[in-house]
Amino acid sequence: MILFGLIIIYFTERKIKIHIKKISWAILLSGVMIILVSFMWDYFKVTNQSTQAGWSLTSEQALFEEIKTYVPVQFNWLLFIAGLWICGAGMIITYRDFKKQLINP
Fold first, then answer.
1. What is the pLDDT of residues 4-49, one digit of tens each?
2. Is residue 55 included in any domain, yes or no?
3. How many domains does the chain have?
4. Of 65, 76, 88, 95, which alpha carbon lies 20 to 30 A from 44's?
5. How far apart (Å, rounded) are the C-alpha atoms in residues 20 and 15?
6. Which structural domain, as residue segments, surrounds residue 34?
């Protein structure tokens, strides 16, 4: 995301109108969502395997009480890297669109 910010600053300094296409937004947001899921994957896996019933509106337990003491056991690197690749693809597509505007104003 820092790289994406630098790309936008670079083209803004060259007076290029910054307009990110919908497909680029969709690709970038998909990658971000996959990255977020990769961080939550282990917790989802543990809660799905839990023998306890989860939180409900009628339960006495606070909504996020069990997450206060949760320590992740493993990290889903494959999912994380897939999200990074998808974000990277979105950045490359956006960079190429900006570059076309620089060459053909």
1. 888 889 888 888 788 889 999 999 999 999 999 999 888 777 777 6
2. no
3. 1
4. 88
5. 15
6. 17-47+71-105
Residue 81, token pair as written in the block:
């890297």
Tokens of 47: 């809660």
Helical segments of 1-105, H only: 2-13, 22-49, 77-103
Question: What is the pTM (predicted TM-score) of this model?
Answer: 0.74
Q: Rounded distance, CA 66 to CA 59, Å?
A: 13
Burial 13-45 (b: 16+ CB within 10 A, else e): eeebeeeeeeebeebbeebeebbeebeebbeee
Is 24 a domain residue?
Answer: yes
> Is residue 104 one of the residues assigned to a domain?
yes
Say if residues 95 and 7 touch (Cβ distance below 8 Å). yes
d(CA 21, CA 77): 29
Give the separation between CA 12 and CA 15, rounded to whole angstroms.
5
68: its two tokens: 């206060």
